[in-house]
Each structure stands twice: as structure tokens, then as C-alpha cells.
């Protein structure tokens, strides 16, 4: 009797355990299916959100329009730096995207005004969107430079990137001597542009012709304006100048002319543009780690207050729709009067 009861209990327990196990398995299976479905739904939402995010970034990039400034380091040319900026913006917006290739293309216009060569650093003014049309007006403003000149050494490019063409003594030159001649280079003066420059002959840059070894005649002297010039430091053979000038002025020519006026010779060792128009190096020039769509949008908003009233009124509206793909048009607008920094590498 006891054995029979025990068997019955055992059998009952077995049935309960079996049912429990079966129900647990079914529940687990259902939970797994639900989990997979949830994961798929979440992935779909994430993918959809990602597409929306990309489209929003692309639209915001295409809507950027105006003028701002970036901080150019030594090393790249102005053109190379602008290309780097363009690539960073494209990469952030992940443009162009494959799913948009069949749709109408939208061109992103971006350019710079006022070339700085590879050896120079400082403010580089950039126009984006319709801001590229403002660059010519921006170039009419003054520019400010800190230039370090080296006495006793002349080069074919008038800066440290060129070949030494002449060496003369400088040991008798004093601080008073330099300060005494600076007045000659202030105001409305005549200046001969350097041979290595962005100026053109028969459609080609003089610097390009020089690199080919072709004979190039110097351009005639032309009127330029120097608003102020001061000697900041003199530690022979080096002297530091703070110069504010108008468009078309060459700092390299200035330093070379100063050396000649002192019965010696001189060339530019370092050059930093600290101001162009209303943009200053410390307040407005974006460093490379700030080259993002949001940072540039904020900078454009801030810089709009710096523009002349006639330009601010022409602030452009976003062009195109969110469904347009981006292709790049690389535009460089150089001042027709010529630039005032080392141009050897151009």
C-alpha cells in the first residue's frame, strides 16, 4: 500500500515537473521571439533615425551660407587647407549617400579669399554657399600681420622657403636705424611685387613660370597702402614688425625693401596674419577641431554681425530640398591685386 502511494505521488510529481518544464520552454521560446522582434524593431527604428539624422545633417550643410574665418597652420597651402575643410564637412554629413544618387545634385560652394602660403599661418577667410560672392568685398578691408624678418640674407622668394641669393653684413644696424626708416614705408607708397607671386603673365602665375626656370620680368611698382607699421622686437639678425595694410600689399617686399634701405638685405622668416577685414585670429578663426557643421553654423551666425550692412542684408536663404545630393565645387577666389604672403608653393 505504501509502495503504491509512493508510486502515485512520484507519478504525479513527474507529471507536474513535465508540465512545468514544457510551460517554461514555451514561455522562453515566446520571450525569445518577442526579444528578436523587439530587436528587429529597435534596429529598424535606429536605422530610420540614422537616415533622418544623416538627411538632417546634409540639409544643414547645404543650408550653410556666409563668411567665416579658419585658423591656418604652417604646412598646408591655402588650397590644401580648404580641401581638408571640405572633406571633413562631407564626411560628417556622410555625403553623398548611395540612396540619393538618382536624385538631383546640389553643389556646395566653398572658397577662400586672401591666400596664405604653406609657410605662413593665421586668419584665412572662407566663404560658403552664397558667401563665396561676398569674398571680393571682404578683401577690400585691411589686413594685419606679425612678420619676423632676418637681416643679412636675401632669397629668391623673399622668404625662408627660397634659395639664398645674397648675404650681407648687418652687425652695425641698430634698433634706432630700423625705427628711423619705417616712416618711409607708411601711408600711400609705391611697391614692386615679388617675382614669386600670384600675379599672372599670359594667364599663368609668375611663381609657376619661375619654377620652370623661365625668365620673368618684375612687375612695375604700383600704389599700395600701409596704415601702420611698428617695430615690436629687435634681436639681431631678427626683427619683428606689426603691420596693418590694404589689399595687394606684400609683406615680403616690405621686409626686402627695409633690408635694402639699411644697406644690407633681408627676408621673411615667419609670417602670421592676425586680422583680415573684421576677422581676428584670436576671436574668430576656427581651429581644425572646430570644423564641424554645428560649429560653423554658430560661427556664421556670430560673424554675420561683423559684416557691413549691405552684405548682412543679402544673407542668403537655404537652397534646394532635403532630398538633394551633394557634389563639391572647389572655388578659390584670389584678390586681383595680388597677395601679400609667400606664394612659392602655389
TrEMBL record:
Keyword DNA damage (UniProt): no
Keywords: Acetylation, Cytoplasm, Isomerase, mRNA processing, Nucleus, tRNA processing
UniProt cross-references to InterPro entries, sorted A to Z: PsdUridine_synth_cat_dom_sf (IPR020103), PsdUridine_synth_N (IPR002501), tRNA_psdUridine_synth_TruB (IPR014780)
Family per similarity comment: Belongs to the pseudouridine synthase TruB family.
One GO term (biological process): tRNA modification
EC number: 5.4.99.25
Keyword Cytoplasm part of the UniProt annotation: yes
GO molecular function, one term: tRNA pseudouridine(55) synthase activity
Main location class: cytoplasm
Record CDD domains: PseudoU_synth_TruB_4
Function comment: Pseudouridine synthase that catalyzes pseudouridylation of mRNAs and tRNAs. Mediates pseudouridylation of mRNAs with the consensus sequence 5'-GUUCNANNC-3', harboring a stem-loop structure. Constitutes the major pseudouridine synthase acting on mRNAs. Also catalyzes pseudouridylation of some tRNAs, including synthesis of pseudouridine(55) from uracil-55, in the psi GC loop of a subset of tRNAs. Promotes the processing of pri-let-7 microRNAs (pri-miRNAs) independently of its RNA pseudouridylate synthase activity.
Location relative to the cell: Cytoplasm, Cytosol; Nucleus
GO CC term (a single one): nucleus
PANTHER family, alphabetized: PSEUDOURIDYLATE SYNTHASE TRUB1, TRNA-PSEUDOURIDINE SYNTHASE
Recorded name of the encoding gene: Trub1
Record-annotated Pseudouridine synthase II N-terminal domain positions: 102-251
HAMAP family xrefs: TruB_bact
Catalytic reaction list: a uridine in tRNA = a pseudouridine in tRNA; a uridine in mRNA = a pseudouridine in mRNA; uridine(55) in tRNA = pseudouridine(55) in tRNA
Name the record gives this protein: Pseudouridylate synthase TRUB1
A Pfam short name: TruB_N
